[in-house]
Amino acid sequence: MISRYFHNIIATFVMQKLDMENTLHIEATLEQAIELGLRADEFEMIKEILGRTPNFTETAIYSVMWSEHCSYKNSILWLKTLPKDGPHMLIKAGEENAGLVDIGGGLGCVFKIESHNHPSALEPYQGAATGVGGINRDIFTMGARPIAQLNSLRFGNIQEARTMWLVKGVVKGIGDYGNAFGIPIVGGEVFFDESYNTNPLVNAFSAGIIDTKKIISATAKGPGNPVFIVGSATGKDGIAGAAFASKDITEDSANDLPSVQVGDPFMEKLLLEATMELATTNAIVGMQDMGAAGITCSTCEMSAAGNVGMEINLDLVPTRQENMLPYEILLSESQERMLVVVRKGEEETVKAIFDKWDLHAAEIGKVTDTGRIRYYMHDQLVGDVPAESLVLGGGAPQYKRDYSEPAYYNEYKKFDIDTIEQPQNIKELAFKMLALPNIASKKWIYEQYDSMVGARTMTTNRPSDAGVVFINGTEKGLSLTVDCNSRFVNADPEVGTMIAVAEAARNIVCSGGIPSAITNCLNFGNPYNPESYWQFVGAIKGMSAACIKFSTPVTGGNVSFYNQSVINGKEVPVFPTPTIGMIGIVPNKDNVMTLDFKGKGDLIFLIGEYHNDISSSEYLATYLGVKASPAPYFDLDKEFDMQATVQLLIKEKLVNAVHDVSDGGLYVTLVEMSLPGNLGFDIVTDSEIRVDAFLFGEGQGRVVATVTEDDEDAFIEFMLTQNVNMTLLGHVTKGKMQIDEEHFGFIAEAKEIYNNALGNILENKN
User: In terms of DSSP bridges, do strands 680-683 and 736-739 run parallel, antiparallel, or are they unpaired?
Assistant: First the structure.
């Protein structure tokens, strides 16, 4: 609707033969403002800011800059409560394009996660591909070279044709763009639930390494300094994409296809190399990626950050189509573009570098001391706005919405495990669990990604709970993960989000890393819905508590509201999904820990506590179909203590395989540890715990570790000094799976099911 409306209103202007000379004097109407996504009271605010009624172009500018996607107007007040200080922080949330943490030796890690949900719902290939491109630009715009990517994906019922189409398009888009760009995809997660049937979630994460003395700021300074647009030409793709991302997906959303950008990974690769070369010169004052809202966002945010203004000549912008109108140039979200403020006198340096890489480098304006952004077209003023009035944390509106606890929350808490009959055939159940889409291997997906390009990845052949990459020139590694069990968050937003942070930290620890900091991608429903907003508020509270406990400050991220469908006039939100992207430092690459069993006879220990709990587990929700239950057991203090113990065990080399107990419970954990080496396990369950809870419950705070017989005494002696529970489960076998002396088959049988279940569905082989 928005993109179509833009074109309709301009067509009306053309039909009325309104010439460019009068553009600034054509007042926008309230009806137009509302159609563009502004509220009536916001339109009045704009008139007060400008001291007059804005013209259509200015109204369009405010509509995208004050959209939820750009301004965070319904979330910023709560986001400000998140912890932002930590021992490694160099750049805090909101200060630059991405967060930056110190990793020692004069190096830093720049990392961020963002959503591309709405574009992917309409055009999954380009929606996902441009999400990958955009997040990588956020990294290298700061002067960091990307070294690793991850993604977090949510889809609807995998049996539905549209879901299969979305999965295939998104995965191919991520793979094609990421592989061509040349940055390895080292991890991720995929989750299926009917709540995502119409509105999938596509969250892209990237991390890069930077010399902390060579950070490029997204700040404009120095009146008189020239302003350049570099990279690709500007086209009509992606117009009003930010506004499109700030509304519901409806039956009419197909009309918004012009709001989906089109990416070119080879152009982005050239832009990366040109930027890296430019970063070695003294020519840059500031630089920012041209993502949401395009030229509008970059010019306003960079100016506001430096308390300056700009004069921009839109007719100097390289375009792909002739006769593009001012609003089209300003709001285009064409990919692979950046705005650069250049030190006066260094113009030829910039032009020479981008000419070498066969990219545009056009001088389109200059920095001023006015604090205003003035846009010109053919020497006529078409827009005149104060930069500060448009940006997040500045003049953009900030709202604290009403929220209320939904009725289902207390209904879920009434769940009683004793109402669930214990299964009769555990072996049959175990094999069926391995075939569930949320449990089965995502091999069909990740095999389409290049995880080895760049020769840094350490966890491809021997998997770990987190992706680990080398940091060249050092003995260190970088551990990275993305995590969120959205079923837990739906059951209890505060506890579920604490679990998401804790699981991310647990994955970092199990890989041999030390948790450092997080970025988040907060995917929720309509913020004007009090129950959806209650979920958002609970998630923020839970995230804060867990991040403080683990000393992992929030470096920034993304808020994505309006993830829902309007079906027969009723809003149906997705599961609340606060995706956590976390990085950790592996002090020495020799301490990288993998999850695979190493040898027959090794002892299998559980570190942490058992609980008679199947709440919100895959077993209960998917296999048994019981949707109403609370979040699983979780104790933040015990979780922290357990992780601290595991860190020490890995450091002292007392364990040789570590894997956390998560989706699918202990049984799935043991199978996943068996698969890489084609080994097996022989364990005994606890007679005081229901067997289904013991094997398939997803209570938190547990890790499985293996110990050689030679290290058994030292391991037990160490554990007796810790205030953490340990249980000897059994031992590693040559390939046989045995539980309570019952033969569960061989790992080869489990492997066949686990590795092929998802692919069989997607390739219609079932």
Answer: parallel
pLDDT at 678 over 90: yes
Angle at 676 between CA 674 and CA 678, to 5 degrees: 60
Give the whole-angstrom CA distance, residue 302 versus residue 375: 15
How far from chain centre, in Å, is Cα 353?
A: 32
Instruction: Kindly indicate whether the domain formed by 102-215+455-592 is annotated with CATH number 3.30.1330.10.
Output: yes
Which residue numbers are catalytic?
69, 116
Comparing 517 with 763, which gets the higher pLDDT?
A: 517
Which residue has better confidence, 94 or 84?
A: 84
In which order are the strands placed within the sheet that holds 657-660?
657-660, 703-707, 603-607, 726-733, 680-683, 736-739, 742-746
pLDDT: which is higher, 648 or 391: 648
- Beta-bridge mates of residue 469: 457, 478
Asked whether 7 and 248 are in contact (CB, 8 A), the reply is no
Query: How would you classify the pairing of strands 680-683 and 726-733?
Result: antiparallel
pLDDT above 70 covers a percentage of the chain that reads 91
CB neighbourhood size of 161 (10 A): 8
Query: What's the angle, vertex CA 613, arms to CA 607 and CA 616, rounded to 5?
Result: 110
* pTM score: 0.92
Query: The CATH number of 1-84+217-398 is which of 3.90.78.10, 3.30.420.10, 3.90.650.10, 3.30.1830.10?
Result: 3.90.650.10
Residue 485 and residue 663 in contact, taking contact as beta carbons nearer than 8 Å: yes
Whether residue 248 contacts residue 565, with contact meaning beta carbons closer than 8 Å, is answered with yes
Question: Cα separation of 369 and 127, whole Å?
Answer: 38
The whole-angstrom distance between residue 140's C-alpha and the CA centroid of its chain comes to: 17
Nearest to 338 by CA among 245, 270, 396: 270
